[in-house]
Amino acid sequence: MKDLADAEGTDRVDGVDGGVGVTALLVAAARAIETHRHDALARDEYAEQFVRAAPASAGWPVRMRQVPDGDANPLWGRFARYFGLRTRVLDDFLLSSAHSGGARQVVLLGAGLDTRAFRLDWPSGSVVFEIDRKGVLAFKHQVLDGLSASPRAARVTVPIDLREDWVGALCDAGFEPTAPSVWSAEGLLFYLPPAAETNLFERIDRLSTEGSALAFEVKLDRDLLEHRDSPLYTATAEQIGIDLLKLFDRNPRPDSAGALMDKGWSTSVHTPYDFTLLHGRGPLPEENDALAGNRWVFATKPRP
Q1: Which domains does the chain have, with CATH numbers?
Q2: For residues 302 and 265, what is the distance between their CA atoms, to the nearest angstrom?
């Protein structure tokens, strides 16, 4: 899988101590802050524990009262609320696909520090597959085992790099391509070259029978550097040392939603602000907006 190898060629850190891995801690910190809001969109009681357990993030805030400028802070205010909204929207989609759509196999690609297997109300018979690198999953195991956390569905971790044969590893772990599944690629595609993204969705399509569903996040910016001095990017770099623009792949993105439609999937594309309006809280557009090109895509493979 050369394309995926190219995608992560500059990120050789296996765990959450650097490279793309440390962004999992950023999202966990955002979920912790969201959890403690009085108007929380999503709650994750484990998120704070991940942040506290990793040296890279031990000093980061996990409550808004720990942020001197509160919601005016571009990172811990606006960006963290974005992740809180994203968590809620994908929670709803995955649960709806499982309860109403009948998908009992849930596949989290680049699962990171996701805890949906532990905190969501899955229907009986559900299996949550978490695919990520060995070091990331080992860190997650260490923290969750220390909390004696119990999953609310069968949970199967697949410790493999997406540069390797993750399809074979997933099937060896018990995934059944002939049964409906629901997939999530949350915060993953930003880091992949276009060819790697295309290959990823071709594999998902081949593994998905009728009745399956998929949610993913893309950026449509023609030039990411157009927003290089946006408050969101600069605050993230200055406050916690993560330069997202150095981690993102800057090549023009493929039309993955269109490609899925060509393969028979039904797709819908939304801005995050659509869901801010729906839920009555969340980020709003602003000048020099680093979130302006973000899109959340939801797809289903119709039954005959």
Answers
A1: 2-300 (3.40.50.150)
A2: 7
